[in-house]
Amino acid sequence: MSDNLKHPLDSSTTCQESVERVAKVARIEDFSDEEEEQGLVVSDSELSMNPRSQRYLVAIEYIGTRFFGSQQQPTHRTVVGVLQKAFHNFIGQPVKILCSSRTDAGVHALSNVCHVDVERISKRKPGEVLPPHEPDVVQKAVNHFLQKNEGDVMVIDVRCVPNTYHARYKARERTYFYRFLSGPDPLSILEKDRAWHIPEELDLRSMQEACRVLVGSHDFSSFRANGCQAKSPMRCLDELNVTEVQSTPYFPSITERGWSNLNNGDPLTCPSQPKMDTDGVTTDTGEVVGSTNDDTFGIRRQHRCYVVTARARAFLYHQVRLLVGALKCVGTGELTVSDVKQILEAKTVSAAKPMAPASGLYLGRVKCEFP
User: Fold this and answer.
1) What pLDDT is attached to residue 252?
2) Candidates 104, 117, 152, 238; catalytic one
3) Hey, what CATH class is 172-247+302-368 in?
């Protein structure tokens, strides 16, 4: 497997200072890659001062395939809409949920963060306010109702926070991952809508060199989509790298399972199982070699899996997917590293390559500031 290189900035302090200067001009421009904040200000309803309610910080994971994005929409199924319904079923009254990062239709999340205010009212004595639920009770109860609605959202953590805490404005860093699967064979149905399939081989080292050009503080006008309302195109990429990882779903091969040791008294194997020929195995490149007795028939050839990691305090509209689109073109040879530098310096999105599809993008983590 090729070397896995990371290219963080030599000085993260410089990046942070750059972002802070932008934040002073437009404090609310902390948004996700997929949908920026539209010049909103924090309203009184968002900073709940109701002493009878408890504000919870909730971390969620979801499969974005069947959602029209994360933000609530009146006529479409969204992550927030489904989550609000589950809370409503739990406590018996409507709630408003605000996410730290917005994601587009088809984008997944390993961990997105939101906050919600819950006032616990007695069902036996209407109007009587009870002590707040413990976080673990909230997590289990909401997940119970989520599993009754497609089961593609799950609460993975809950914490009590002050009523002035705001998930969006306390987010200090966001990490996105993007998955490529490279190889000539069609994707497995188990990978459907989970990665971008690239039939060609990818040049990992060239992609890593292109990351060095893009990481750091730059004018990213060439990597923000039309309609972006951010007041400044300046952003700081604290990390941008490409890594080759084990393709998933992953199951051990014949060699890894150690069939040759079946008759050596291993208690975890069946001693009556006949020894199998291990000649026909799958190589790292997905090629089946040395088959002498058809043992490899029906075994799918694995794709090579690459993951792009992008980490920053905030991103421009569709910035990550446009960056990934350029890196893919470098990997296939459509662009050179010098071409990427020229695209960056052009400062216009018309110079960029088409952005990557949503299906391979994952919001990996939102790092929050806590009191």
Assistant:
1) 80
2) 104
3) alpha beta
